[in-house]
Every structure is written in C-alpha cells, then in structure tokens.
Design a protein that fits this description.
The chain is mainly β and 455 residues long. It has two domains: 2-80, no CATH class; 186-453. Helices cover 2% and strands 43% of the residues. The chain has one helix and 42 strands. The strands form six sheets. The protein has a 21-stranded parallel beta sheet that branches. It is globular and about 75 Å long. The chain starts with a strand and ends in a 25-residue tail after the last strand. It comes from Azospirillum baldaniorum.
Length: 455
C-alpha cells in the first residue's frame, strides 16, 4: 500500500511507501517529497480495498490474497472480462542502434513509471502510426538524434506521452494524438523534454492532461535547450490535477538565449487546481497558456490562439528579450489577464525582467475584466499596438484603472465584434475589414493547426 502526496500548491505528486503510522495517527512516508508538505497538502491512499470508489480502480487485499477491481461494466466483466497486471517495461528497447523503424504496432499494459518504447542513442529512428494505451510513457528518446515520432495515437497514459532526454537533437515530434495524460503520476505532460536542441514539436493534438501539454525543462547546465520550435499544436484541457503550469511551459534556469519559437498553437483551457492552508480547493489557480518560467530568455511567442487560460495568456517569469506578437487571447473570467510579468527573487539580479515586448496582439474579453497586465516587480516591458476588444461597446470595465503601460495600445471599437467573423460561435477568423489589419495583424493559419494540418 502506498500514498500519493501533493504539496499545497500541487506542483508535483510523490508516490511513496508507508514507513509507519504511529499511535497518534501520524503518517510517516519512506522518503521525502519533492516539495515540503505544509498545512493543506493532500494525500491519497492507494491500493486499499476501502477506497475502491470509481471504475478502473483496483486494490490488493492482503488478508485473503485477492486482487479487487471495480470494472466499468460489472455484468460484462463477469461474463468475459479479464484483468491484466502490467509488469514489463520497456516492451521494445534499442541501445545505440541506428535507423530503427516501428510502424503500425499496438502497445499496452506497461507500468505507470515505465515506457513502452525506449530508444537510447543512435539516429534516424522512425516511430510511425502506432497505438499506445494503458502505458506509463509511450515513447522515450534518450539522447537520440535526427529521428521522427509521427502519427501515433497515445491514450490513458500513466505519466507522459512522449519524452526526450538531454542530448537529443534534431528530432521531429509530429502529428501525434495524445489523450488522458498523467492518469497515475500527475507530474508529466503530453510531450516532455529537457536538454534538447533543434527539435520540432508540431501538429500534435493533446487533450486532458493532469499537468502540462508540452514542457521543455532547463534545470541545470546539462539540460540547456536551444534552437527549438513548438508550432501548430492543438492543446485542450490541461492542468486538471496540478497548479503552476502552462499548456506550453518552459524552464530556463541557465539564463541563456534559448532562440525558441512558440507559434501558431491553438490553446484552450489550462485549468490549475490547488488547496489553501485550510484544505479548501482553489480552481483556475496558477494556470497559464504559455508559461516562460524561471529566466527563460529569447522566446518568440507569435500567432497563437489562447482561450480560457486562467491567470494569464502569457506569463514571463524573470526572462529577458521575449517577444509576444500577433496572438489572439480570449479572456473568459474577470480575473483573467493577457500578460503577467514577475521577477524571480531567488535568482538575484538575473531574476529581474528586461527587454520584453508585446505588440500587435488582439485581446477579446467575453466578460468585463479588471486589467490586462499583472506586473510584480515586472521590470522593463513594452506594449505596442495591441487591440483590446472589450464587451459593452468598447467601454472600460467599471472601476478598472487605465494602465500606464497601455498608453500606446489601441482601444477596442464601438461596433459589436468588429474584428472576428463570429466569436459567439468560436469563429475567430478576421473579418475582411477588421481594424486589426490596419496595425499589421496577420490572420492565424487555422487550417495548418493539428494533425490534419501536418505537411
């Protein structure tokens, strides 16, 4: 029997064994958690017969040595069902080989902390049109070069869909459909990477993730990321179990120029859930559309569609030289923001923000919002030629202050929906006479987004 423990901010989950439970009912885990467990942290007992509440849950009854399972359809399961205990990972592994091709295969029943396919070293691999279901991670690339993972369907994943480890370079992750990510271990994403270069992540469709849609981590000098492109992806409903996350998230602890491009992605619904010190749930908490975390520098965020992205459409956390251009942001809650700037005090002077700019963006508010930008010691930033399409014939929301940084931005027009074809029906194509065209705003390439737009 084990415990799944999450810190109050739900930044990561730890699945730990139980060392003991003392006479006062205090639970002692066999190892420390990733983050400190403060008041309000949550704990879930795994594998105990008394906690079989939902279909697909199972437990081991040590008393009578039976595996207990709650099926989706008890009658059908009693008639011809079977239970499979996943024990093997990986199912296919290649070490230092070249030009391995896996095409049209099905993979299932891999432990939540294991990968179905593990390719370590080598180059020229192709993982094409396979199906992965009920596996921990579908495809794990370990220091692989010039390889392609394309057209795969990955669903019901214990942790992540596709993962690239440090030293991977020149790879293409294209047109994969990834569903129900992080069903056991929440700290994962549709596509996870660290220490990668010249990588293209494009035209993937990622839905229903406990944490990230796409994440690119730089923790230390060994995990620097440079010259990568994340484009034409469709991401829906992420941050279902955790907080402090982005549909597309980067971490930049090395404080380098990443030369990263994040463009033409369609992002909707970034969730975010946590608890306060009293254990009360907080929803839409620290969820972001594009999250440039911890000193991520030199990113061009352009041509993205961002809707219902919680605290901010784009969050720049201590980074320099980032450009946010030609994006459409749809704000759906009065607490939503288009931009958030925040310093990183633990990084010293490097944590101050410098030379960040947002220009030619179109922000559409479905409800009155208090302000467009949150800046917490936000440093130097510029807003140029952005259009704010507010409800109520372009009037400012009651009581909302005019921001100093909006002085050079353009106020929305007095016509109802002067910019889009039909926003009430989620049609955000520009009208032929849209005023946004006058500031140089370019139509988003809608037909190129998602697996169907792959070339």
């Amino acid at each position: 029997m084990r415990v799944q423990a999450l810190d109050r901010e739900r930044q990561a989950d730890d699945i730990r064994g139980i060392e003991r439970i003392d006479r006062n009912g205090t639970l002692v885990l066999d190892r420390d958690g990733w983050y400190p467990f403060r008041d309000g942290s949550t704990f879930r007992l795994l594998g105990h017969p008394d906690f079989l509440k939902f279909p697909s849950q199972f437990a081991w009854s040590a008393k009578d040595r039976r595996l207990l399972l709650r099926p989706h359809d008890p009658a059908a399961f009693a008639r011809d069902g079977e239970a499979v205990v996943a024990r093997t990972a990986p199912l296919i592994q290649a070490e230092k080989a070249d030009s391995v091709t896996l095409d049209g295969l099905s993979f299932a029943d891999v432990p939540y902390n294991g990968a179905a396919v593990r390719l370590a070293g080598g180059s020229g691999h192709r993982v094409l049109d396979n199906r992965f279901s009920a596996v921990g991670t579908g495809v794990l690339l370990v220091g692989v070069a010039d390889s392609e993972v394309r057209g795969n369907r990955l669903e019901h994943l214990g942790r992540s869909g596709i993962e690239l480890t440090p030293g991977s370079a020149g790879n293409r992750i294209i047109a994969n459909a990834i569903r129900h990510v992080g069903e056991v271990n929440f700290y994962g994403g549709g596509i996870m990477s660290a220490g990668v270069t010249r990588t293209r992540i494009a035209n993937n469709d990622i839905r229903h993730a406990a944490r990230y849609g796409i994440s690119m981590k730089n923790w230390n000098p060994e995990t620097k990321n440079t010259d990568n492109v994340i484009e034409y992806n469709r991401i829906r409903d992420v941050g279902r179990e955790t907080a402090d996350l982005g549909a597309i998230e980067t971490l930049g602890r090395s404080d380098i120029d990443t030369k990263l491009v994040i463009r033409f992605n369609d992002i909707r619904g970034t969730g975010g859930i946590a608890t306060d010190a009293a254990g009360r749930w907080m929803t839409r908490y620290k969820g972001f559309g594009v999250y440039l975390d911890d000193l991520t520098n030199g990113v061009r965020v352009e041509g993205n569609f961002l809707e219902d992205t919680g605290w901010a459409s784009v969050f720049i956390h201590g980074g320099d030289g980032n450009r946010v251009e030609n994006n459409i942001a749809v704000l759906t809650d009065e607490r939503d923001r288009f931009l958030r700037f925040e310093w990183v005090p633990t990084a010293g002077t490097a944590g101050f923000l410098r030379d960040n700019e947002a220009s030619r963006n179109l922000i559409h508010a479905r409800v009155p919002v208090e302000q467009l930008v949150t800046a917490l010691t936000g440093g130097e930033y510029r807003l140029e030629n952005n259009i704010f399409d507010r409800p109520g014939r372009g009037l400012r929301a009651p009581g909302a202050p005019v921001e100093r940084t909006q002085a050079r931005s353009v106020q929305g027009g007095n016509q109802p929906d002067p910019y889009f074809m039909n926003p009430a029906k989620d049609d955000y194509r520009l009208r032929p006479n849209s005023p946004a065209l006058k500031i140089g705003f370019q139509e988003l390439p809608w037909s190129r987004i998602g697996p169907e737009g792959a070339r």
